[in-house]
Structure formats: structure tokens, C-alpha cells
Design goal:
There is one protein chain. This protein has 86 residues and is mostly beta strands. It has a single domain, classed as Thrombin, subunit H (Beta Barrel). It is 0% helix and 53% strand. The protein is built from no helices and eight strands. The protein has a four-stranded antiparallel sheet with strand order 1-2-3-4, with no helix packed on it. A four-stranded antiparallel sheet has the order 5-6-7-8, with no helix packed on it. A hairpin with a 4-residue loop joins strand 6 and strand 7. The N and C termini lie far apart (27 Å). It comes from Dicallaneura pulchra. It holds the Pfam family WD40.
Length: 86
């Protein structure tokens, strides 16, 4: 769960993703109403989370300048752009 303010949310199918000022993005399983996964791949506030159209990937962006692409099936990071924005 988040330990600080939530900044953004996105929903796809059974999952809700949230990003926060604690540098985490949290995945909630809406079917079971439980926390599914907590990912801490950013080194700054997570300002945006968005699922792809088919829900196969989650993209997150952070104050650290990075954008991360995570596969939703296994919640593994597939791509990190370290300085995608400034």
C-alpha cells in the first residue's frame, strides 16, 4: 500500500494501478479487492500510470525522469527509459 499521497490512477479489466509520492506504483485486484503487487522501480514521485488499450502493459512516469513499461501478466519490467523526460 502507499505510505504517502496517491497522485494518479488507471483501471484495466480487473486491475487498478495507482502511483504516489512514495515512489511506488500499487496494483489492486478489483475482483478480490486485495493488493496484488507493489512495485518500487522509480526514484521519485509517480505522476502518471496508464494501461495500454488491451491491458497487456502498464506505463508509469516519475519525477526521476523515467518511464517504465511493465507487463501485466507477470508484472515484470520490460523496458525502462531512464531520462525520457526532464
Amino acid at each position: 500500500s502507499h505510505t504517502a499521497s496517491v497522485r494518479c490512477v488507471s483501471v484495466a479489466g480487473r486491475y487498478l494501478a495507482s502511483g504516489g509520492t512514495d515512489d511506488k506504483f500499487v496494483i489492486i485486484d478489483l475482483k478480490t479487492r486485495t493488493e496484488h503487487t507493489v512495485l518500487m522501480n522509480h526514484d521519485g514521485t509517480v505522476n502518471t500510470v496508464a494501461f495500454t488499450h488491451g491491458g497487456t502493459h502498464l506505463l508509469t512516469g516519475s519525477d526521476d525522469g523515467s518511464i517504465i513499461v511493465t507487463r501485466t501478466g507477470n508484472w515484470q519490467v520490460e523496458k525502462i527509459w531512464k531520462k525520457a523526460h526532464g
